[in-house]
Amino acid sequence: MNKLSLGIVGLPNVGKSTLFSAITKNPVNIANYPFCTIDPNIGVVSVPDERLEKLNEMSKSKKKIPAVVEFYDIAGLVRGANKGEGLGNQFLSHIRETNAIVEVLRCFKSTEIVHVENSVDPIRDMEIINAELTFKDLDTVEKILKSLEAEARSGKKDALKDLEVAKKVHERLLRGELLVDLRNEPIVKKLQLLTAKPQVYLLNGDPEDVPAGLVEKIKALGADYIVKNIIKDQDLGELIRKSYSILDLISFFTTGEDETRAWTIVKGEKAPQASGTIHTDFEKSFIRAETISWNKLLEAGSWSKAKQKGWIRSEGKEYVFQDGDVVEIKHG
To answer: How far, in Å, are 47, 69, 234, 256 from residue 306 at the CA level?
Structure first.
């Protein structure tokens, strides 16, 4: 995963468009990023990272390339979206493309902005949205169960395991449970199930607007949340950091005269796999990674000074990249 993509979902008039306009007024100008092919409903922003800024200053690089996040602005969801109500199915298919979901819940009171359900009740709204995601996933899983059963009977490799997981998924969806803990199962990944995507809830309003019990319900789902009045505060840093956290993502860096760049990987990736983010050939031809922590490199003042001090480590194929590593990859 070399970039993060988040689907913004919620009922109509909850603040999704306000959030999206905050994103799109701050587009990122990055070399090699194909803006011409981005739909109007996708906004791209850079991941705020002081480490990148400091490394860039140290190296006096010609270019600074941050990690980026794509925000997909999904059409407002209403009851019955799974059956095609509103922009229903189109909305739900867009979410499939994303790594995680940002669920915007309206907590703010306003007589001027109409609520589609005629009252402000974020707990009810959360249940409506998650029910729609669940119904859509049930439809997807029920369609595939018959073919998995046939494959399992014919002794097809992996089909038995897939069938076992699919049955478990089906039972849990019938109980209205999310599937985030199963998101790495091959069949769940293949089906791109919506309820398996990690969630961050954006509670749109001031802290005093958040009803009792909402935060506990969010935590019970294994999700994270932030409270933010989007009209007053359009800084997306905390939202992006929470999204990195729920997806177990970290950043490592490369730096030099030409460019300083942040790279996004999943926590726990070994050196060859992680270096494949820079260039796919590096994974196959990986020899070793010269590496140092970003703050240690800044303390040294330059790569060459860090080398003179003996602070640059040479790591092999079993090394697990750490958040904030600065690396030079040696490859065949």
So the answer is: 27, 32, 39, 14
What's the rounded Cα separation, in Å, for the pair 56 and 262?
A: 10
Span 225-233, average pLDDT = 93
Assign residue 76 a region (left: φ > 0; alpha: ψ between -120 and 50; beta: otherwise): beta
Alpha carbon distance 302, 291 (integer Å): 13
**Three-state DSSP class for residue 237:** helix
Q: Are 8 and 73 in contact (CB under 8 A)?
A: yes
Q: Measure the CA–CA gap between 152 and 160, rounded to whole angstroms.
A: 5
Determine the Cα–Cα distance for residues 270 and 276; give it in Å rounded to an integer.
Answer: 10
Residue 158: pLDDT band (50, 70, 90) is confident
In the three-class reduction of DSSP (H, G, I as helix; E, B as strand; rest coil), residue 35 is classed as helix
Reference 45, options 66, 75, 19; nearest CA is 66
* Tens-place pLDDT, residues 246-266: 999 999 999 999 999 999 999
- Residue spans of beta strands (DSSP E) within the chain: 4-9, 42-46, 63-65, 68-73, 100-106, 199-204, 224-228, 249-255, 259-266, 286-293, 313-315, 325-331
- Quick count: other Cβ atoms within 10 Å of Cβ 27? 14
3-state secondary structure of 89: helix
DSSP states along 116-160: TTSS--HHHHHHHHHHHHHHHHHHHHHHHHHHHHHHHHTT-TTHH
Sign for the pseudo-dihedral over CA of 290, 293, 295, 299: negative
Q: Is the overall model pTM greater than 0.90, yes or no?
A: no
Residue 91: strand pairing partners: none
Residue 135: name the closest of 184, 95, 194 by CA: 194
Distances in Å between the Cα of 215 and the Cα atoms of 126, 149, 226, 227 are 11, 40, 10, 10
For the chain, the residue count is: 332
pLDDT tens digits, one per residue of 47-98: 889 999 999 999 999 999 999 888 888 766 656 655 655 444 555 677 888 9
